[in-house]
Amino acid sequence: MGSAGNQPLPVTYADVSAAAEILKGVAHRTPALTSRTVDERTGARVFFKCENFQRMGAFKFRGAYNALSNLNDEQQHRGVVAYSSGNHAQAVAFAARIFGVHATLVMPTTVTAVKRAGVERLGGRVELAGTTTADRMARAEELAKETGSVLVPPYDDARIIAGQGTAGLEIVEDLPDVGTVLVPVGGGGLSAGVATAVKLLAPNARVIGVEPVGAAKLSLARAAGAPVRLEHTGGMADGLLATQIGTIPFAHHSAYIDDVVTVEDADLAPAMRYLLDRLKIVAEPSGAITIAALQTGRVEPRGKTVAVLSGGNIEYDGLRSVLGNG
After folding, report:
1. pLDDT digit string (tens) for 225-237?
2. Using one digit for the tens of pLDDT, what is the confidence trace for 153-195?
3. Any residues with CB less than 8 A from the CB of 212 and at least 6 apart, and which?
4. Cα–Cα distance for residue pair 277/271, rounded to 1 Å
5. Which domains can be identified in the chain, with CATH numbers?
6. What is the number of helices (H) and of strands (E) in the chain?
C-alpha cells in the first residue's frame, strides 16, 4: 500500500482487485496488441492497451460500473447524475441501464454528436451546461440537491479510480516485465488507477502521464506541489481538458507517476492516422495521445512499453475532419 507523505492513499491494491472481481464477465478484458512497424519505428517493443475496444468505446465503463455497483438499493432508487465531456457520461448511462437506474448526464454545449447520441441511445437524459468542467460540475451538483440523485464524479472518487485501475492490473498480468507505461491524463482517474496498479505490482516499471499542451494541469500541479486550476483549457483532445487535476488522483500521481509530458495538438492527427493506416485501429484524439508522445520522441521507450489507448469514440465525420487536416 502506498502513501502520500505519512497519509495512506485512498485507493489500495485491495480496492483495485475487488473492482476487478466486480467487473469480471461485465467489462471486456482488452487486448495488448503489437505491431512490427511500430516497433521498427520506435526501436522498442510497443504494446497498445486497447481501451477503445472496451464496452461503450472507452475505459470509463470500468469506473462507472464499479461506482454504481457500490450503491445500495435506496441510492439506486434515487438515481444518479454525472457530469462529463462525453465518455464518462456514456459509461454512467450504460452502467445505469444495466442496474436499472435513472441517469441524468450533464454535458458541455460543445459535446460531439457521437458522444451525446451515445448517451441518449443508452437511455440517459442529457442536459447541457456551459463549456468547462466547472460549469458541468456546478449544474450536476445542483441537480443532485434538487432531485436527491447520487452524484457520480468522473475522476475524483476512489471507486472510479479503483475501477480504472483494473486496466493497469491487466497490463501487468499480461506483461509482468513491463518497462514503461504511457497513460493519458485528463482529470486523473485513469492515470491514477493505472499508476497505482502498475507500481504496486511492477515497482520497477516507469509510469508516464501524457497530457495535451492546452490542458497541462498535472504538469502545473507537480510544479506547484498541489492541484491548481487552469483559467482556460482547449484543444483537440476533448476528453483530457479538465481544468484541474483531481485531489485524490493527484495524491496517487505524487506517489506513483514518474514523469508527465505534454503533446501538441498538431501531433494528434498523425498519431490517429498512423493507428488507422497501419494497425486498423480507430482512436479519438484523447486516446491517441500516448502514441503521439512516442512518435514525437517526448517519451523514450524503456523495455516493453505499453501505450494506453483510452478511447475510440469519434464519429465518421469527425474522423474524416481530423484526418483531413493531419
Report:
1. 999 999 989 999 9
2. 999 999 999 999 999 999 999 999 999 999 999 999 999 999 9
3. 235, 236, 237, 240, 241, 262, 263, 264, 265, 268, 289
4. 10
5. 3-58+157-324 (3.40.50.1100), 60-151 (3.40.50.1100)
6. 14, 12
In angstroms, the CA 241 to CA 230 distance is 10
Rounded to an integer, what is the distance from CA 152 to the centroid of its chain?
Answer: 15
CA atoms within 13 A on the CB side of 148: 5
Residue type, 238: D
Cell numbers given for 96: 445505469
39: confidence class by pLDDT, cuts 50, 70, 90: confident
Whether the model pTM is above 0.85:
yes
Contact 162, 189 (CB under 8 A): no
CA atoms within 13 Å, Cβ hemisphere of 229 = 4
DSSP 136-184: HHHHHHHHHHHH-PEE--SSSSHHHHHHHHHHHHHHHHH-TTEEEEEEE
Residue 310 annotated among the catalytic residues of the structure: yes
Residue 205, all three cell numbers: 516499471
* Sheet strands (E) in the chain: 3-4, 7-8, 32-34, 46-50, 80-83, 103-107, 125-128, 150-151, 178-184, 206-212, 259-263, 304-309
Instruction: State mean pLDDT over 272-288.
Output: 93
The grid coordinates listed for 73 are: 438499493
Catalytic residue among 191, 219, 254, 310: 310
Per the annotation, the verdict on 24 as an active-site residue is: no
The active-site residue, picked from 49, 60, 115, 199, is 60
Concatenate the DSSP letters of all residues of 40-70 into one string.
Answer: HHHTS-EEEEEGGGSGGGBTHHHHHHHHHHT
* Cα separation, 269 vs 304, whole angstroms: 25
